[in-house]
Amino acid sequence: MTLVLFSLGVYTAATGSGLACQAQWPLCSDQLIPALTINPDFIEWFHRVWAMVTGFLMVGVVGWTWLGSGFERRTKLAATLAVVILPVQITVGAITVTLGGLIPGGYTVSTHAAHLIGALSIFTLLGLATIWGGGRGNARLLRAAAGVAVAGIVASALFSRAVPFLTYAPPAQAAFYITGLAGHLGLVATVAYATEAVRGGHDGLDAGTAATVRALAAGSMAALVATLLLGRDLVLYTATWQGINLAALGIAVALAAGAAWTLRGTDEVRDGSVPIGGD
Length: 279
Known about the structure:
Layout: H1 2-14, H2 40-67, H3 73-96, H4 109-133, H5 139-159, H6 170-200, H7 207-230, H8 239-262, H9 267-270
């Protein structure tokens, strides 16, 4: 739900629908529910409704982690922090669509940047809550996470504004964030599972290798976040910025591929199906 919400928000902004609804919030053109036809008012309203439903589900996740059994403290804190950020995210979202309405000058680069960073923070925290809530990882999950990271980043490159392969139209922008965030989630999982391996070890995976994988994945994540930020109109997108964007995308792919490559070659040992030493 949060992944779809993120891409809906990007599509809403890219189509200019964020300036619809007569710059009103929470009403839309003096209505609680606008005409249910595909127009800018409906796109903006639908984004708000999806956000509301997602917010209630997030509260439910927090309740589940605290009232359920077997969840670690870190799982509870990640889910709770995501909900703590939520009111701020809602407030910033309201500001971004009230250009000349309730809050003059709301439709600015700074508020858009804050809204994007808030959404990414919530998505990351929910990802961590899901990963940690599933119990301890293992070498197989670590390799799978690295594979998802590489696939997501490479797929995002097809839609990125840094690569002139497709026109960076609103659908392409939404697709860029869906694939890019999938890659980001893969990197989050890679860092989380590698950290576990550094601290306690996984079958057939030594702490040194795990630390290398973690460092590569963390570097890839930083570069990927830079491309996610540059995917919005936060800077005047000149040829120089396009070059920086392309470099960040290349670094993200290279480091993620390096993490996956580091985990290659001893799959059977890492899964525990072949004991170390051949005994």
